[in-house]
């Protein structure tokens, strides 16, 4: 990845970019575990704009900047003039005069694209309604830790809502040659444009993207099963209606057994809602993987920031 690049979508990265991020993240993780300091971003500042809640993203970006020798500013949209109607394009141009990078979590993906268009510093997508690239790159990193470096030919199954996680995982899998199968209820399928893009990326790496309404079919032969909340941030009012529709898509032991692979792992980006998208017993069985996945946000985002803000 070149210095100054934005990270808005995995689709815009090359397979080499993805490999570079994951390899550098492993190096940074090893350094941090060994207590070797790595002040790659000394003197640099990241602005972190949040229009939605966060535990992992906020803490991992802030701690990550600190470990890289720089600092991070938490900028809630409730406090910024952005929340009172100051245009994104003005916010972008102002912040570019103070900061070395911007991380943003918001609703509409087009807001992140506009911010990136007007900012002349790197912009990192920390979740939009459409995409969550930092999480999906972290998921690839975590899968590599459990399954080895070469992921080509392995199957990833996603069961649940066709949401931001589905989209970014689909892009991530396609870039590394993983076969991706998604099972959602009717009416909750992934975005058609994202599916078309992911299929084009998958064709380049010899992988497949399969969309179904049948969760058993999706998980058959899967090395990795992933799920996410049935009601994402901003969909709280739909929670009860969604719970009724999504019930057959719960990741429980019966579904995990359908993978047929005794080494199959289950992943979840968190926060997890037990008794909804995943059962308590499946969650706890795979807690080591899931909390490694949460930890790895730190290492992967440090690699991204060091590459685009440091160079
Ligand atoms: N997985 C994830 O992005 O978590 P937060 O919403 O807590 O940041
Ligand atoms: N799909 C979830 C992911 C949370 C990290 C949401 O957007 O709320």
TrEMBL record:
Catalytic activity: carbamoyl phosphate + L-ornithine = L-citrulline + phosphate + H(+)
E.C. code: 2.1.3.3
Domain (Aspartate/ornithine carbamoyltransferase Asp/Orn-binding) ranges: 153-307
Keyword Cytoplasm listed: yes
Gene3D superfamilies the record matches: Aspartate/ornithine carbamoyltransferase (3.40.50.1370)
A Pfam family recorded for this sequence: OTCace_N
Pathway(s) where this gene product acts: Amino-acid biosynthesis; L-arginine biosynthesis; L-arginine from L-ornithine and carbamoyl phosphate: step 1/3
Annotated compartments: Cytoplasm
Keywords, sorted A to Z: Cytoplasm, Transferase
Chain positions recorded as carbamoyl phosphate binding sites: 54-57, 81, 105, 132-135, 269-270, 297
Residue ranges of domain Aspartate/ornithine carbamoyltransferase carbamoyl-P binding in the record: 6-145
Residues spanning the signal sequence: none
Residues engaged in binding L-ornithine: 164, 228, 232-233
UniProt superkingdom: Bacteria
InterPro entries, per database record: Asp/Orn_carbamoyltranf_P-bd, Asp/Orn_carbamoylTrfase, Asp/Orn_carbamoylTrfase_sf, Asp_carbamoyltransf_Asp/Orn-bd, Orn/put_carbamltrans, OTCase_ArgI
Record keyword Transferase present: yes
PROSITE patterns (alphabetical): CARBAMOYLTRANSFERASE (PS00097)
Family membership noted in the UniProt record: Belongs to the aspartate/ornithine carbamoyltransferase superfamily. OTCase family.
Matching PANTHER family: ORNITHINE CARBAMOYLTRANSFERASE, MITOCHONDRIAL, ORNITHINE TRANSCARBAMYLASE, MITOCHONDRIAL
The protein's name: Ornithine carbamoyltransferase
Lineage, top ranks: Bacteria, Bacillati, Bacillota, Negativicutes, Selenomonadales
């Amino acid at each position: 990845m070149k210095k100054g690049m934005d990270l808005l979508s995995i689709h815009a990265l090359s397979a080499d970019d993805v490999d570079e991020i994951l390899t550098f993240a492993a190096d940074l993780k090893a350094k941090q575990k060994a207590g070797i300091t790595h002040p790659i971003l000394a003197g640099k500042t990241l602005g972190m704009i949040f229009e939605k809640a966060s535990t992992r993203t906020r803490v991992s970006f802030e701690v990550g900047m600190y470990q890289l020798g720089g600092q991070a500013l938490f900028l809630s949209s409730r406090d910024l003039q952005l929340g009172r109607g100051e245009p994104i394009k003005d916010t972008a141009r102002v912040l570019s005069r103070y900061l070395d990078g911007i991380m943003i979590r918001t609703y509409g993906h087009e807001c992140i694209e506009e911010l990136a268009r007007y900012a002349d510093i790197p912009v990192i997508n920390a979740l939009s309604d459409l995409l969550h690239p930092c999480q999906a790159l972290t998921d690839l990193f975590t899968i590599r830790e459990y399954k080895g470096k070469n992921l080509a030919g392995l199957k990833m199954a996603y069961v649940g809502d066709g949401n931001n996680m589905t989209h970014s995982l689909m892009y991530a899998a396609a870039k590394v040659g993983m076969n991706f199968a998604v099972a959602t209820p009717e009416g909750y399928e992934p975005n058609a444009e994202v599916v078309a893009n992911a299929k084009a990326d998958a064709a380049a790496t010899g992988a497949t993207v399969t969309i179904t309404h049948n969760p058993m079919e999706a998980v058959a032969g899967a090395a990795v099963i992933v799920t996410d909340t049935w009601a994402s941030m901003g969909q709280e009012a739909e929670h009860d209606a969604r719970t009724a529709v999504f019930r057959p898509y719960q990741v429980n032991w019966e579904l995990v057994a359908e993978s047929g692979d005794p080494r199959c792992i289950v992943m979840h980006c968190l926060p997890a809602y037990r008794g909804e998208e995943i059962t308590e017993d499946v969650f706890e069985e795979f807690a080591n993987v899931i909390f490694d996945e949460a930890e790895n946000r730190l290492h992967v985002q440090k690699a991204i920031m060091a590459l685009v803000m440091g160079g």
